[in-house]
Amino acid sequence: MLEIQGIAVSEGIAFANAYCLVEPDLSFEQMAITDVEAELERLKEAIAQSKLELQAILTSARDKFGEDKAAIFMAHLLLLEDPEMVAAIEEKIRTGCNAEYALHEVSNMFIALFEGMDNVYMQERAADIRDVSKRLLAHLLHVEMLDISRLSTDVIIVAEDLTPSMTAQLDPQYVKGFITDIGGRTSHSAILARSLDIPAIVGAKTATQAIQHGSAIIMDGTNGKIILNATPEVTAFYEQQHQILQQQRSELLHYRTLSSISADGRSVEIAGNIGKPEDVEKVVHVAGDGIGLFRTEFLYMERQELPNEEEQFQAYRTVLESMHGKPTVVRTLDIGGDKHLPYLQLPAEMNPFLGYRAIRICLDQQAMFRTQLRALLRASAYGNLKIMFPMIATLEEWRTAKQILLEEKAQLQAQGVAIAEAIEVGIMVEIPAAAMIADLFAQEVDFFSIGTNDLIQYTLATDRMNENVSYLYQPYHPAVLRLIKNVIDAAHKQGKWVGMCGEMAADSIAIPILLAMGLDEFSMNASAILKTRAQIAKLSYKQLEQHLEHIFMLSTAAEVEAYIKKNLSM
Fold this sequence. Notes:
The protein is an alpha/beta fold.
């Protein structure tokens, strides 16, 4: 039996075989061939196999993700039928090259051609050619291509890392959990795992080396343990733990019918974080009090070009109508850092988390920003919309973004477009500078939502994606707590409300402090809503408030955590 320890980021226990997402060995040698017809036949067969494969993937993708996300596979099918590209490979073979080398040379030529074009859409075709060529080469070499879109049995994904877009494509019907070598608790793949409500372990370091494709795994997403070749006794133990977890989840269903209120009668909102319209169903299922964060960047991902105004309008309208008047906070495009859009061609940066991202891109590329704002304003007539700008550091950024919103609103109203009378507009507080001058912002914004994932990493100068400095990522650090309290106090003095949409909002240790500070809204992945509602129902706001003075005298995160566990946890 082998046990690997990683970072637990999404609780639960899973039993399945490993599906290792590793790059296959597609190396080959250039060879002179004498039987040209046989080599042409090899190419023809590889194309035929690739077509069958892509047609199956296309059908599956349409069923799971819809026509838009399946479009990329249609583009790949069309490339396999491109007479110019196929003819060029065949011609190269006729000069005496083996099919692998001919494919390599021709595909590289087309990739260079498309990448050199000024048109962004045409540049993106280079990525399609690269993917199709890799699939063809795999068939020529008789190497199996691993593809998560083709899953039909239960698996646990094992990979060095998963991009946000890859994680968004995981189908929880078959993907029972995932394990990565790198990452931290607040990496986007971890956040998405919690939204999918599947176990996840990151930062396991040697997982891809130690785990073989197809091997049986038990993963404990609650404690970060991965067990290979488990003994019958260990298997029985985890089967029992799995049943206990299932029972606890069943008991929490009782809280779907209860209000979000503390033991002494203080009402709060417990809302859900979502990444796409389909996620709303999970929030509604657990009777969430609203949507505290709609991460709109996922509407822009897994595409070949920017979504147009009508596409966005329909997505926002769907979410607002589904919430039946409950508040819905939509964050404008937050791209950059570790979230990339290939078709935008953002510049490579030494420090992308401190660079050209989020509101900075939107204020620079205003056409894209204005399109999103128009779609949001049009959708506002269908529900209780609140708009939030991310990554705000200065009052000038806030004022410019608000002015652009007002300009688009005036234009739409002049055209007779229906827009909600009152739309609250606020900012995401994730930069310490904004938290420090929250009193100034509070005079102008309608609300704050504290994004603790970034606020913590910026305050403590620690990359939240880097397991080497993960010990510095401390949600209970006195500096972080003081910034949060400063924001809440400043807002309340102006009669404004404050939410929190970072992972800290669902942290069972942090919740008593946040409630004591007077946080108005806790927003989290839907899977944590009932658990949080149950915890708050057992806490007394007034009793907790009495501990704040002592907590703010503590000097380390460890002291704060120990004090809460001893005195405030339920």
